[in-house]
Amino acid sequence: HGATGPAGGKVYSPLRPDQAPLNLRGKDFSFDPKTLELRAESGGAQNGMSFDSRGRKFVCSNSDHLQYIVYDEAFAGLNPFIKQQPARISIAEDGPAAPVFRISPDEPWRIVRTKWRVAGAVRGPVEGGGNPSGYFTGATGATLYTGDAWASEYADHAFIADCGSNLIHRKGIYPKGHVATARRPAEESGIEFVRSSDIWFRPVQFSNAPDGNLYVMDMYREVIEHPWSLPDGIKQFLDLNSGNNRGRIYRIRTIEGKIKQRKLPGEAKAMELVQMLAHSNHWHRETARRLLVQGNMIHLQDAVRALLKESVDVSAQVNAVQVLHGFGSLTADDVETVFRSKSSAVHLALLKLWGNRDELSPFDVPFEKNISQLILNNETRFQATLLLSKFPLHSSRQSEFLWRAMSLEKEDKYWMQFAVLNAMHSCRSDFLNHMIAKGEIGSNLFHDTGAFYQFFGASSDKKEIAQIFRFVFKAPISMDTLDALSSLSHGMRQNGKGWSTVLTDTELAHARERYLVWIQSQALDHLSAAGKIIGIMGEMMNESLKQSWKTMLSQSEWAILHSELLASLANVFSLSDLDWVWGQWSSWSPSVRQVALALMMSRDELLLAYLKSAQGKPELIKDLTFSQRRNLQHHRSDKVQQSASRLWNPSTENVVKMSAEDFGEALLLEADMDNGQRIFNERCASCHRGNGEGFALGPDLISIKTSGKNRILDSILYPNREVQPQYISYEIETTEGESIVGLIAQESRSLMVVKQAGGITQTIQREKIASIDGTGNSIMPSGLLEEMTTQDVGDLLEYIVQLKR
Q: What is d(CA 662, CA 715) in angstroms, rounded to the nearest whole number?
């Protein structure tokens, strides 16, 4: 099992040139040492990966010091019609970049560098609002302690190094529903598990050792920073190679503890290896297990099986199951033995092994026989339900168990819903019938009822969709029923379907009439519900309803709903509507004009007509955001680019020149915060949040603001100079000719989720993707400061560094 890192990659086998490459973007990997089969695994963090004594996986990243892997890659995307939840989640209660408490002195060069950064003289982050240290910036080596030389209170605690602050941090791991949470021990409040006053102490990795203690790998470098982060004015006084020929390994042990002299697995006889499966030190258990399987000691399977049946030690039972599986000797009787165990850990070990198989046989009968036991147990319910997604039972039985799992869940409906929906692809109809028979809309059952109905809409089964509509439509209008129909409609849209493909003309007419009467009589008193209904009616649009909408869009009393009304015309908006739009333009608010612009940018023929009209009506381009203008200038269509160039001509060269000659003054000007906010909302808020406004697409500005004005300015001027992998934009072409540019937020074998500016999220089915091309560039456009004065730049920078959440 290995860590890939955030950059990912495509892995080819030179021994198997006929096989497609394995894409490890956002994933870790494992391989079978016998067959050399390479497999993608959930992960994708940075330098740190470890398993606890129960086999749960933990990882870390530089500024997100402890993360938990919720489920295995084997279960991802098995239901192609649902949005996959990220398998890797941050679990530290004190936040990803938690405070740390170093005792080593800040290096003189670090103090000078921080002062220069604060003053804006050099690029770089200003940690802690002007302090050179104080929180995680170089988290590495996350390791779960599984030894036996320390007190039991340390068992399965996480140890994370911060090599830049010369310390080792500890976190206790505690259950939180079906996931985990991590908490600093109370006795280490304000201190660290290990901290050194020696600035050369650079812990980077750990290892659980044969003696039951924890070993620490210390790089022992004078300077741990990357040379790029050091200004030339400082670098010339430092020896960046100092310590290249050094390194230390420490053993952490208790003061009173004695080093135990033990027989090592490599020195043990065959039967002794079996006995070591019950050893108190996890390193011995793990090594004995490996040697038994590696040596193919199948002749010992009866002894291992006896250990499984007779031992009262949970770890021994878990290891016995794993060894029998490694031998290929696990039988149905062994599975029955596992289920007779009272330990959930043993059950989970078996479920994990099953999850990595391509088929269950000969285990299918014991699995179905014992599924009730697994679902009744809070500790095994989630993993058992996930397994049903890979190895479904008969539809009616599958539906029965999924309903029971969701109904029993009280503590963590969020993750249980994901598992249930992932396993529902094989019993959709039975589950729906069960739900309707109980008269249950779903709000009392699911964490997010919308995800359930969106799944049915995306599946495109006309009979089921019509069945849901009739069931929900006959209920009184409420937010629950509207959420259901809105989500159902959204799911259908993923597959290019609409209400007209599943409902009769009579049903459509009845729905339009009922909802139009409600809009005209109650909408202004129930705006949230009105927004939902208008969206639903947008998928039922006909010419008569379109004219009703146009009438309301021309009347000021409906102004508060103009954006929703106009957006709902997307499916029927055409060239013939443009003259009407120009006639309403001046009476609409800027937010409504943005909706109109989005409609026109959805199709090239509308966009070209808009640009042509704008040549004679300059007021039509005043509402274009900077990002929209840049997108037009770099549009995939040459005709659009040419039309846009007639309206304005950017001068990027002036921006680069200003960065050297004029923007230094902007760092020192007295700022107008109101103007800074105006510019932020105009040019930044579509991708960044600040002071409760905007959308979270790019990096978190609350953490970036500590880097200082000079670094922020440099990042704006040169967005593509240093781009983290997660912020590289991709262009996805669909089989229907649509081009979508944005960040890949999530992907599975069946779906890809793309985030775009303005809070737009698009879910695309894999089968509808024609090509995916990485631009190599940041999602933030270059030339962002174009046409801004030096004072404007100063106002914007001051507003950013003063941001609050």
A: 16
Write down the pLDDT at residue 705. 72
Tokens of 678: 């105006």
- CATH code 2.30.30.100 region(s) in the chain: 655-801
pLDDT for the residue numbered 447: 93
The topology (CATH level 3) of 655-801 is SH3 type barrels. (2.30.30)
pLDDT recorded at residue 691: 77
Cis peptide before 210 (omega within 30 of 0): no
Tokens of 573: 């908006």
The DSSP element (H or E) to which 312 belongs, if any, is none
Cα–Cα dist 633/644, whole Å: 6
Euclidean distance between CA atoms 411 and 306, whole angstroms? 37
CB 347 within 8 A of CB 381: no
Q: What is the four-CA torsion angle of 363, 364, 366, 368, rounded to 10 degrees?
A: 150
The candidate with the shortest Cα–Cα distance to 749, out of 3, 72, 73, is: 73
What Å distances lie between residue 435 and 401, 407, 617, 621, CA to CA? 13, 11, 56, 51
How far apart are alpha carbons 801 and 704 in whole angstroms? 8
CA–CA distance, 614 with 593 (Å, rounded to integer): 14
- Residue partners of 402: CB distance under 8 A and separation at least 6: 385, 388, 420, 423, 424, 427, 431
For the chain, the 3-state helix, strand and coil shares in percent, each to the nearest 5, are 45, 15, 40
Query: Three-state DSSP class for 248?
Result: strand
The 8-class DSSP code of residue 299 comes to G
Question: Burial level of 333, CB count in 10 A (0-12/13-18/19+)?
Answer: exposed
Q: Which contiguous run of DSSP H or E holds residue 63?
A: none
Question: Residue 802's pLDDT is what?
Answer: 84
Over 41-78, what HEC string results? EECCCCCCEEECCCCCEEEEECCEEEEEECCCHHHCCC
**668: its two tokens:** 């020192």
Task: State how far the Cα of 624 lies from the Cα of 597, in Å rounded to an integer.
Answer: 8
* pTM more than 0.85: no
C-alpha angle 284/288/291, rounded to 5°?
Answer: 140
Tell me 443's DSSP state. Answer: T
Kindly report the backbone phi and psi dihedral angles of residue 129, in degrees, each rounded to the nearest multiple of 5, phi listed first.
Answer: 70, 20
* Pairing verdict, β 64-69 and 88-90: antiparallel
Write down the residue that tokens 């000691």 correspond to.
297
Token pair, residue 616, equals 């004679």
The pLDDT, as a whole number, for residue 63 is: 82
Rounded CA separation 195/104 (Å): 8
Angle formed at CA 137 by CA 131 and CA 143, multiple of 5 degrees: 140
Q: Are 199 and 222 in contact (CB under 8 A)?
A: yes
pLDDT reported for residue 656: 46
Measure the CA–CA gap between 549 and 566, rounded to whole angstroms.
8
Task: Please give the Cα distance from 267 to 270 (Å, whole number).
Answer: 10
How far apart CA 650 and CA 664 sit, in angstroms, is 22
Question: Other C-beta atoms within 10 Å of 371: how many?
Answer: 22
pLDDT at 365: 63
For β-strands 739-747 and 728-734, DSSP reports them as: antiparallel
For every residue of 347-377, which 3-state class applies, written as one string?
A: HHHHHHHHHCCCCCCCCHHHHHHHHHHHHHC
Residue 41: phi and psi, rounded to 5, are: -130, 155
Q: What is the pLDDT of residue 233?
A: 86
Distance CA 203, CA 191 (A): 17
> What does the pLDDT read at residue 703?
65
Q: Chunk the chain into consecutive blocks of 10 residues (it has 805) and report each block's average pLDDT, rounded to whole numbers.
A: 87 86 91 87 92 95 93 88 91 91 88 77 63 79 97 97 95 96 96 96 97 97 83 86 92 87 93 96 97 96 96 93 93 90 92 81 68 91 92 92 95 96 94 92 90 92 94 93 94 86 95 96 94 94 94 93 94 92 89 89 89 86 77 85 79 45 72 89 84 80 71 80 75 78 77 82 81 78 80 89 76
